[in-house]
Specification:
- With 466 residues, the chain is of the alpha/beta class.
- The protein has 3 domains: 112 residues, no CATH class; 91 residues, Beta-Lactamase, CATH 3.30.450.90; 248 residues, Rossmann fold (3-Layer(aba) Sandwich).
- Helix content is 38%, strand content 21%.
- Strands 9-8-10-11-7-12-13-14-17 form a 9-stranded mixed sheet, sandwiched between helices. Strands 3-2-1-6-5-4 form a 6-stranded antiparallel sheet.
- Helix 1 packs across helix 3 and helix 1 runs parallel beside helix 6.
- The N terminus is likely disordered.
- InterPro entries: P-loop_NTPase, T2SS/T4SS_dom, T4SS_GSP_E_ATPase.
- This is CpaF family protein.
- One of its GO terms (molecular function) is ATP hydrolysis activity.
- It holds the Pfam family T2SSE.
Length: 466
């Protein structure tokens, strides 16, 4: 650790330094012992609380300056950092506290900076997928796709803000009235979204999406009942045959997990470029280039969109392009990439059905300024997309593949599709729902998939003859 980074800011009181409001008014003379009078004692207790709050804000500003370095410090280093900064802060503002009180405040601040209050056990619980905070009283978590209200809560809204700012500070992200919304990636790959007043009426609202340390594989998803082994084999063939795939579904339906699993079928000798708003994909692949969009500053400068990254990725010699979520004008570039030699590309899109997925792609391309007729746009979509994998979350929280649909071309100026598999739950003898995927009895028509299958058959025959 760099000792210079622990050097406290400020050398002492001066007229240019603003004093703390009310009870933190600078006073001359040495620190005095704690008062004995009851009213004065109450006032002094409030002074210590104010000191802690103001010093905490000061520490957060220092942590923002330190950035990622702070996240690598040990608890002992953080405690030393807090002590030095607090001592400087007390001298700078001539706060009338004694050595014991200063030590108590420093210990409390160290605990605040090394722990995350009621969030700590939830972040450490591997079963928790999402943490949702609606003001200081309400904490909800998602386990196995089902939301549950937690018994724990924060002390007040200020407590929520302190913990959230503690999370955001090493990321270099500010949260205040001028920037009341923040969306950021956590160091472990998770995601945090925060919105505060005046936009959030009932107190700070926080959404944390946790990142799995062991991403689900296709085999895991089959064992979890997300889809059948037959569907898994078709998906594997489609990926290896370099078919273009869109994963469609609603919020928290498992789109990213499925996309991650599908990417595991990509041969190891191919170069993959992933593009996301917030990097969530964790591909188990030897050659991956990860790109992440960047929000602009308050005046809009510095903004780099997914569309910008997608255009640039075409110059990076990708074998495959994977877009974490298609939600805007980048759909045009993705379609063009799929149609101009970048086969095997994939992405996710928010839609409730395969047909809605196609409508949404058409709508987004239109909003992005597609120059051409509706029919030409539909033809481009039909030529680009080979398969749509529809995924959803059931009422019991389970995530299931609801439909595997192939895009077959154009019929009467409309995109034509055929459904290969459909999810239909059956009621078993015990009265419980049982997963079932019904085959529509239709074989895939994709030229890419059939060509790959024939090549595999020929390779197998040649090997057997030798």
């Amino acid at each position: 650790m760099n000792k210079d980074s622990l050097a406290p800011h400020g050398a002492g009181p001066s007229p240019e330094n603003p004093s703390l409001a009310d009870l933190l008014t600078p006073r001359p003379g040495p620190a005095r012992p704690a008062p004995a009078d009851a009213s004065e004692s109450l006032q002094h207790t409030q002074l210590l609380a104010d000191l802690k709050n103001h010093a905490y804000e000061h520490l957060l500003s220092r942590i923002e300056e330190l950035g990622a370095e702070f996240g690598r410090w040990s608890q002992a280093a953080i405690a030393q950092f807090v002590k030095l900064e607090l001592d400087s802060f007390i001298r700078l503002h001539a706060v009338p506290v004694n050595e014991q009180e200063a030590r108590q405040v420093a210990e409390a601040l160290s605990r605040e900076l090394t722990g995350l209050g009621p969030l700590q056990p939830l972040l450490e619980d591997p079963r928790v997928e999402d943490i949702l905070i609606n003001g200081y009283r309400d904490i909800y978590v998602s386990r196995g796709g089902m939301l549950e209200r937690e018994a724990s809560h924060f002390k007040d809204d200020e407590h929520v803000l302190r913990i959230v700012r503690r999370i955001l500070a090493p990321l270099g992200r500010r949260l205040d009235e001028s920037s009341p919304m923040v969306d950021a990636r956590l160091p472990d790959g998770g995601r945090i979204n925060v919105i505060i007043g005046p936009l959030a009426i009932d107190g700070p609202t926080v959404s944390i999406r946790k990142f799995r340390k062991d991403p689900l594989t296709p085999k895991d998803l089959v064992q979890l009942g997300s889809f059948s082994e037959d569907i898994c084999r078709i998906l594997e063939m489609a990926v290896k045959a370099r078919c273009n795939i869109l994963v469609s579904g609603g919020t928290s339906s498992g789109k990213t997990s499925l996309l991650n699993a599908l990417a595991s079928f990509i041969p190891s000798n191919e170069r993959i470029v992933t593009i996301e708003d917030t990097a969530e994909l964790a591909l188990n692949h030897s050659h991956v280039v990860r790109l992440e969009s960047r929000p602009g500053s308050f005046d809009g400068s510095g903004h780099v969109s997914i569309r910008d990254l997608l255009v640039n990725s075409l110059r990076m010699r990708p074998d495959r392009i994977i877009v974490g979520e298609v939600r805007s004008g980048e759909v045009l570039e993705l379609l063009q990439a799929m149609n101009t030699g970048h086969d095997g590309s994939m992405g996710t899109i928010h839609a409730s059905s395969p047909r809605e997925c196609l409508y949404r792609a058409e709508m987004l391309a239109g909003f992005a300024g597609f120059q051409g007729s509706e029919v030409s746009l539909r033809r481009q979509i039909a030529n680009a997309v080979d398969f749509i994998v529809q995924i959803g979350r059931l009422s019991n929280g389970r995530r299931r593949l609801l439909s595997l649909t192939e895009v077959t071309g154009m019929t009467d100026n409309m995109i034509s599709t055929q459904e290969l598999y459909r999810y239909e739950a059956q009621i078993g003898p015990d009265g419980q729902e049982q997963d079932q995927w019904v085959s529509m009895g239709i074989s895939p028509h994709s030229p890419k998939l059939l060509a790959w299958w024939r090549a595999q058959q020929q390779a197998g025959s040649s090997g057997a003859q030798r």
